[in-house]
Specification:
The chain is of the alpha/beta class. Helix content is about 35%, strand content about 30%. The strands form 3 sheets. A 6-stranded mixed sheet has the order 12-11-13-16-14-15, sandwiched between helices. The chain has a 5-stranded mixed sheet with strand order 5-1-2-10-9. The structure holds zinc ion. Zinc ion binds next to loops.
Amino acid sequence: MKSLPKIFILFFLLFVLIGPASAAEKLQRVKRIRFYSHRGFTRVVLDVQRDLRYSSRRPSSDQILVEFPQAKLDPAKCTVNINDGLVKGAKGEQIGKSAKIIIQLQQPNLKYAIFSLRRPPRLVIDVSRARAGAKGGTAVEEKGLKIKTIIIDPGHGGKDPGAVGRRGLKEKDVTLDIARRLKRNLDRDGRLKVYLTRTRDQFLPLRKRSSFANQKKGDLFISIHANAAYSRRISGFETFYLCEAVDDTARAVAARENSVLRLESSKNPQSMGSDLEVILWELKYTEFRTQSRELAQLVQKNLDRRFKMRNRGVKTAPFYVLRKVDMPSVLVEVGFISNLGDEAMLASKSHREKMAQALAESIISYRRKYEREKGFTR
Ligand SMILES: [Zn+2]
């Protein structure tokens, strides 16, 4: 430990001698501006080089000023006309070492939220129709205050069997059976409209599942899957919702569930990375993340209460099928088909029925909680 102070002194000297000079030459960049007009709000996105320090304020009631104290921008790339009823446009300016963006609003005192996201690094400014200080106004709140339409998505199907167990149980059959039972359980409630993305053993591309859900104007999307792992000892159930931050095991599950993209048409799945789609994804996942997480938690709680299987918890991962749906969404992995114990349970009708009941309970308690929070009572 004695040598530590010396190292600090050395670093300090290096910083003093080299740091400021190179920092002055290498100011971080605000690369460009993009925007997306959504029902009820406008999203302005600033692509930045990496996590940049920033501040924001209102110089007047119809302006938002975002300031990066140590950054460079090209005004041409950071200026845009929007004129969508909420935001007139944005203008980039370089004043000394500070980069400024002025967002001009079309109405005074509109509410705004500002936050940064990673991969790619960017700063997001959401301007919503609600007045500052007023309640509500986000896309979720405007989307509709009732939970009425439920979309159940049985994973895989047709030429895509999903995971296959050692005793031959196929994921596609388990997911379809649980989905049908879930629909029956939800139909009993009498207040919900319930749709299945597929009702038979049929191949269905992921994008068709999400576009079906969006067409039906679903209020909730639940995708049902069964997991597989190289290690046969791994067992249990887990529920995912969409998020950027993922751990490696979650990434592996997402890779497996997304692999069906290879079976889909010749279209390159990489094309989903286009600018517009990146923005749409941002919208969906930030808007619906809280609701999706709540639903995921309820699902895990209800499954845990009913089953002795291992509770693997709520996780986040970039599932393609969840990315594309315009509503709160979760993906439930009901067990590991690669584990003999789980496979035996998943093969049993009574287990699937209990599973469906637990999922139905979760959806109904989510609806109660959500509608109570939004001021609806039965
Ligand atoms: Zn699956």
